[in-house]
């Protein structure tokens, strides 16, 4: 079966203007080092990383929202790296995005009906007014919102409800892939579970794929089939869920997992006592070798000199480390 | 949450069928807005029906009746309710007729310069990059060029007329709109909901019209009202220099300007046309404020009692 | 914990009179923090947890007003202690350190200013003490940090600076309002470990406000769970996590995803927290509670539990379908 999404050596670089000197000078900063992965139909890949890890950039590059510096993106087998114009527009219908903050990602001046119906309208799939209204109503029902929501404005809703509107909007065009960028991290704990469950139900029924970008490993575990860990713009480990959580191999993955606070007092007290206290080193300097070497307890001379390649160390389990755990 | 939302959501019927009635009902809720609206309607009607309303010919001079004070004062002439000017012309009639030129120039200039400035600002802010730099330098140049000089130049070449005034004032007043619009567009462009709209497949035209432009309503209304006053006064200055409204036609601005010399002997010459300008601007202000609130669902919510503060507190401990 | 509490709050009520009506943000909240103790207040947005802290600090945003109850510091109201108690003996750290720091002053200048004002130190002595404090919050190269501006430092480092600033006045109590919410997981773990160490070493009392049960589990001795402006349950941390009595606490614990294998679906609490403008009569959780019954239409009196209290007619009953966690 063709994967929904194949990413091969995708990299992103930004031109940064330094205004420190007399004349501004251009500098090229690599935000994302060559990254490769696949997402099968009906599969969720969790993309985990901390701020500055490049996880958001990766999601935007796949949606062709930022310029790709190298590599290619295959969507349902077709190369879309250079797609533009009307082809890109058609592709956009198949790949949708759910944003983090539901309060700012919906136009406050539009009614829910117009927001959910907008994708259909702009792609010329709205049909008659009655058809559009019917379609919007069924989308709202699909995400568990009352039918009378349609005529209201966003400010009348809670965060969880607005995120449901965001999901309904993303679903309107029957996409095959949804990039969800931290979709629940702005929500309350009790509401998070509702949205995660909804996303899982929709996936089961529609067979669509998710790229679930998050920093919260516990939520990622709940929804993902496979998980990829990014550090400083590099893919450091990718494996099935059970492998990542049961037997992480990269020292950074281990550190991330150890850092998650768990709601179990004796266990959490123990974790807290073993957490590293040393401050992270300055990251600005140009790095040679493994990006994580400066923070890594297992780092050796080799790590500081040579960048480890992403290698398969078990079936379906790849990591970029000279000394895997 | 459910009942509160239902309370403020207008029903479907009011949205489609009886829009006018809904408009009237909503305007009725806001007394200052309603007053502003009614006064404006009155002023416009006065300008349109000037020939029927004016008791005298505004240009008819009478040396005998010159500088007569308003009718209720001693020496006042009941035939001239608001008095007469230095040439014995009836002030009330001149105000009624002057509304035509004043409103025409004010509204036309604000619309023309506003439209032009908004387009420039939208393009500069939305496209960005080099286009933005070029357009904004153009604005800078125009701003730094003395406006009155340009006006004198153009008018002396083309010759004075109402059309010339409108074009010339529009040419010297569009920059402020461009700057304000560009700034707002740039900040709104970065809003997540604009990115969301782009992802959904909205083209640039729709993004600009549906998602960005509505955010401009309130700052633009504020600026346009301020500009309206400026334009009325600028028109007065130009007319006073003899390059604008040509006698025997008149405008409020011209009346104020030419009455200035008699401030100490005949205060009514500046006061009544001035009052006319003030009342017009005030009622536009009141009405525009209502428009601003009505076009913003969040502002509406505030107005109709469901306070934003309350929700912010409920939403974030 | 025995002995006289440092801070005790009894029947606190805070309202926000607005155009729309009176928002009852905090209702009948009572709590006490003893020396050397960490009390956690857990709740979702709108639960009143931050408003409670603001009321204690005297920093209620307008138009908020305390309309009932009392706040005692070492047995006496604040007024009886004279000015300066709130800044000196009680220190606070907030979610966003950037908001509490002056962007135009170096870290050192701000620390020195605090030290000179509160500890009445000379210029040299204050600078030395500032460097010491930065070392105490485990910052590398403290002397160099003193000359840096806030924008040059990352969020994690700034939060350490805030902590150093809080410690500068030798406080007895630190009020920490979501101190790690804006930070990455690994940085959060470091700050939590630091807080826990400082507390042990200095015998500090901490009032920790958070939405994250994992953080409470590791750091707190006692917990108060807030919902819709009321405390619904209190207890010692181990007992409360092991045997939550209130249906809301039970739901919150189960809705929190963990790193261990569990069921495919999270337990989710339906609906959203009520608007405080029109709170439901009786138990505020009634509308979302799976075991709500007739008596819940009135508010029950607090009942004693093993180690604290609970406000529920059906306390201790299993509210949510039995899903192993």
TrEMBL record, chain A:
BP GO terms, sorted: peptide transport; transmembrane transport
InterPro entries per the UniProt record, alphabetical: AAA+_ATPase, ABC_transp_ATP-bind, ABC_transporter-like_ATP-bd, ABC_transporter-like_CS, Oligopep_ABC_C, P-loop_NTPase
Location(s) in or outside the cell: Cell inner membrane
Stored SUPFAM superfamilies: P-loop containing nucleoside triphosphate hydrolases (SSF52540)
Record has 4Fe-4S as a keyword: no
One GO cellular component, as annotated: plasma membrane
Domain called ABC transporter: residue spans: 5-257
UniProt membrane topology term: Peripheral membrane protein
One Pfam family in the UniProt entry: oligo_HPY
Principal localisation: membrane
Keywords: ATP-binding, Nucleotide-binding, Transport
One MF term in the entry's GO annotations: ATP binding
Keyword RNA-binding tagged: no
Superkingdom classification of source: Bacteria
NCBIfam families per UniProt: oligo_HPY
Family statement drawn from the similarity comment of this UniProt entry: Belongs to the ABC transporter superfamily.
Record protein name field: Peptide/nickel transport system ATP-binding protein
TrEMBL record, chain B:
Keyword Cell membrane carried by entry: yes
Keyword Transport: yes
Ranges that cross the membrane: 34-54, 103-127, 147-172, 216-245, 265-288
SUPFAM superfamilies for the chain: MetI-like
Domain of life: Bacteria
Cellular-component GO terms for this entry: plasma membrane
Membrane topology: Multi-pass membrane protein
Residue ranges of every copy of the ABC transmembrane type-1 domain listed in the record: 99-288
GO biological process: peptide transport; protein transport; transmembrane transport
Pfam families found in the cross-reference section: BPD_transp_1, OppC_N
Main subcellular localisation: membrane
Keywords in alphabetical order: Cell membrane, Membrane, Peptide transport, Protein transport, Transmembrane, Transmembrane helix, Transport
Localisation: Cell membrane
PANTHER family attached to this UniProt entry: D,D-DIPEPTIDE TRANSPORT SYSTEM PERMEASE PROTEIN DDPC-RELATED (PTHR43386:SF1), OLIGOPEPTIDE TRANSPORT SYSTEM PERMEASE PROTEIN APPC (PTHR43386)
Family: Belongs to the binding-protein-dependent transport system permease family.
Protein name: Peptide/nickel transport system permease protein
Organism name: Palleronia aestuarii
Automatic annotation (TrEMBL), chain C:
Boundaries of every ABC transporter domain copy: 7-253
GO biological process: peptide transport; transmembrane transport
GO molecular function per UniProt: ATP binding; ATP hydrolysis activity
Keyword Amino-acid biosynthesis in record: no
Alphabetized UniProt keyword annotations: ATP-binding, Cell membrane, Membrane, Nucleotide-binding, Transport
Protein location: Cell inner membrane
Membrane topology value: Peripheral membrane protein
InterPro entries for the chain: AAA+_ATPase, ABC_Ni/Peptide_Import, ABC_transporter-like_ATP-bd, Oligopep_ABC_C, P-loop_NTPase
Gene Ontology CC entries for this record: plasma membrane
Matching NCBIfam families: oligo_HPY
Family: Belongs to the ABC transporter superfamily.
Name this polypeptide is given: Peptide/nickel transport system ATP-binding protein
Protein's organism: Palleronia aestuarii
């Amino acid at each position: 079966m063709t994967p929904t999404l194949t990413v091969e050596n995708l990299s992103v670089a930004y031109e940064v203007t330094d205004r420190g000197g007399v004349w501004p000078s251009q500098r090229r900063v690599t935000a994302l080092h060559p990254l490769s992965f696949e997402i099968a139909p009906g599969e969720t890949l969790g993309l985990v990383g901390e701020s500055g890890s490049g996880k958001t950039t990766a999601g935007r590059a796949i949606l062709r929202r930022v310029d790709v510096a190298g590599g290619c993106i295959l969507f349902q087998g077709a190369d879309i790296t250079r797609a533009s114009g009307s082809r890109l527009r058609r592709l956009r219908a198949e790949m949708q995005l759910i944003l983090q903050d539901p309060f700012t990602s919906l136009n406050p001046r539009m009614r829910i009906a117009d927001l959910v119906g907008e994708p259909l309208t702009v792609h010329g799939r709205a049909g008659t007014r009655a058809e559009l209204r019917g379609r919007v109503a069924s989308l709202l029902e699909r995400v568990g919102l009352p039918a009378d929501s349609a005529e209201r404005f966003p400010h009348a809703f809670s965060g969880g409800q607005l995120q449901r509107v965001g999901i309904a909007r993303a679903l309107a065009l029957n996409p095959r892939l949804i990039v969800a960028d931290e979709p629940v991290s702005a929500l309350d704990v009790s509401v998070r579970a509702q949205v995660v469950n909804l996303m899982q139900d929709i996936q089961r029924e529609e067979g669509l794929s998710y790229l679930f970008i998050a920093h919260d490993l516990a939520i990622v575990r709940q929804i993902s089939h496979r998980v990829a860990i990014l550090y400083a713009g590099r893919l450091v480990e990718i494996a099935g869920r059970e492998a990542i959580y049961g037997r992480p191999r990269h020292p950074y993955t281990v550190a991330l997992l150890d850092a998650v606070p768990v709601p179990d007092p004796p266990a959490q007290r123990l974790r807290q006592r073993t957490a590293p206290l040393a401050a992270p080193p300055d990251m600005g300097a140009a790095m040679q070798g493994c990006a994580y070497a400066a923070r890594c307890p297992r780092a050796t001379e080799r790590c500081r000199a040579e960048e480890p390649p992403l290698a398969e160390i078990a079936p379906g389990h790849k990591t970029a480390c000279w000394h895997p755990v | 949450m459910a009942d509160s939302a239902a309370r403020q959501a207008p029903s479907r019927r009011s949205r489609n069928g009886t829009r006018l009635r809904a408009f009237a009902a909503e305007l009725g809720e806001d007394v200052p807005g309603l007053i502003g609206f009614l006064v404006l309607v009155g002023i416009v009607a006065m300008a349109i029906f000037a020939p029927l309303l004016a008791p005298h010919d505004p240009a008819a001079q009478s040396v005998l009746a010159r500088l007569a004070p308003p009718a209720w004062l001693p020496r006042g002439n009941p035939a001239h309710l608001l008095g007469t000017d230095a040439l014995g012309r009836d002030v009330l009639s001149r105000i009624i007729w002057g509304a035509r030129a004043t409103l025409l120039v004010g509204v036309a200039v604000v619309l023309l310069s506003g439209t032009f400035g908004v387009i420039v600002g939208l393009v500069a802010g939305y496209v960005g990059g080099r286009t933005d730099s070029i357009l904004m330098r153009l604005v800078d140049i125009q701003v730094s060029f003395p406006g009155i000089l340009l006006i004198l130049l153009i008018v002396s070449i083309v010759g004075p007329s109402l059309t010339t005034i409108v074009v010339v004032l529009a040419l010297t007043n569009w920059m402020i709109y461009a700057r304000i619009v560009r700034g707002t567009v740039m900040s709104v462009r970065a809003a997540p909901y604009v990115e969301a709209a782009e992802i959904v497949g909205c083209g640039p035209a729709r993004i600009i019209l549906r998602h960005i432009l509505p955010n401009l309503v309130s700052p633009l209304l504020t600026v346009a009202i301020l500009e309206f006053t400026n334009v009325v006064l600028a028109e007065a200055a130009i007319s006073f220099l003899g390059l604008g409204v040509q006698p025997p036609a008149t405008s409020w601005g011209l009346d104020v300007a030419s009455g200035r010399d008699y401030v100490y002997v005949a205060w009514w010459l500046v006061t009544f046309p001035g009052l006319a300008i003030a009342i017009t601007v005030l009622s536009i202000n009141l009405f525009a404020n209502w428009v601003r609130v009505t076009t913003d669902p969040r502002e509406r919510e505030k107005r109709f009692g469901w306070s934003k503060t309350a929700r912010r507190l409920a939403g974030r401990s | 914990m025995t002995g006289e509490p440092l801070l005790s709050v009894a029947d606190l009520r805070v309202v926000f009179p607005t155009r729309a009506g009176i928002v009852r943000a905090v209702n009948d909240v009572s709590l006490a923090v003893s020396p050397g103790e960490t009390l956690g207040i857990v709740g979702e947005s709108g639960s009143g947890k931050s408003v409670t802290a603001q009321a204690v600090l005297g920093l209620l945003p307008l138009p908020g007003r305390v309309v009932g109850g009392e706040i005692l510091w070492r047995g006496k109201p604040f007024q009886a202690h004279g000015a300066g108690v709130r800044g000196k003996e009680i220190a606070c750290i907030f979610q966003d350190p950037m908001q509490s720091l002056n962007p135009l002053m170096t870290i050192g200048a701000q620390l020195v200013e605090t030290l000179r004002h509160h500890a009445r130190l000379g210029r040299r002595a204050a600078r030395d003490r500032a460097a010491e404090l930065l070392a105490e919050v485990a910052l590398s190269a403290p002397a160099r940090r003193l000359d840096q501006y806030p924008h040059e430092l990352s969020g994690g480092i700034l939060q350490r600076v805030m902590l150093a600033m809080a410690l500068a006045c030798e406080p007895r109590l630190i009020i920490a309002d979501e101190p790690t919410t804006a930070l990455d997981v690994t940085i959060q773990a470091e700050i939590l470990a630091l807080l826990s160490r400082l507390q042990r070493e200095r015998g500090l009392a901490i009032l920790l406000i958070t939405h994250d049960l994992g953080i409470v589990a590791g750091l707190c001795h006692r917990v108060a769970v807030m919902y819709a402006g009321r405390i619904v349950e209190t207890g010692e941390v181990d007992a409360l996590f092991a045997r939550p009595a209130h249906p809301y606490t039970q739901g919150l614990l189960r809705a929190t995803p963990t790193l261990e294998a569990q069921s495919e679906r999270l337990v989710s609490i339906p609906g959203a927290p009520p608007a405080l403008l029109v709170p439901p009569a009786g138990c505020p959780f009634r509308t979302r509670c799976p075991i709500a019954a007739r008596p819940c239409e009135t508010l029950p009196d607090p009942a004693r539990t093993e180690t604290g209290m609970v406000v529920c007619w059906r306390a201790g009953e299993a509210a949510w379908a039995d899903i192993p966690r």
